[in-house]
Design a protein that fits this description.
Order of helices and strands: EHEHEHHH
Strand order of the largest sheet: 1-2-3
Strand content: 5-15%
Number of helices: 5
Largest sheet: 3 strands, parallel
Shape: flat
Amino acid sequence: MPVLYDPSREINRFAASNKLAEAMAIGRPVLMNEELEVAKAMTGLNCVINTSYKDAGLAADRLRDMVAAPNTYYDACAEARLYYEEVYSWEKVKSDSKAFLLGCKGI
């Protein structure tokens, strides 16, 4: 799933759209431009294909390679779902929010 934002607009560099979490929730890899702050946090994950915004079209070969190798694609899908559970799931977000707002850990 593409998660691309034009980095020439400063606010876009800090974007983390719902489609990112939704793609991860259903276990799908994402194509993301490397200028995004969220992309920096996800560097090295096999479920993320990073590219510069201006060169996003050149990532087509990497996408084709992933789809052509079923194990690679399935592994990326599994990693996406695992990352969602670790970072975006409601239980994780609720726990982190309570800890931040109430100054408590492990609530």
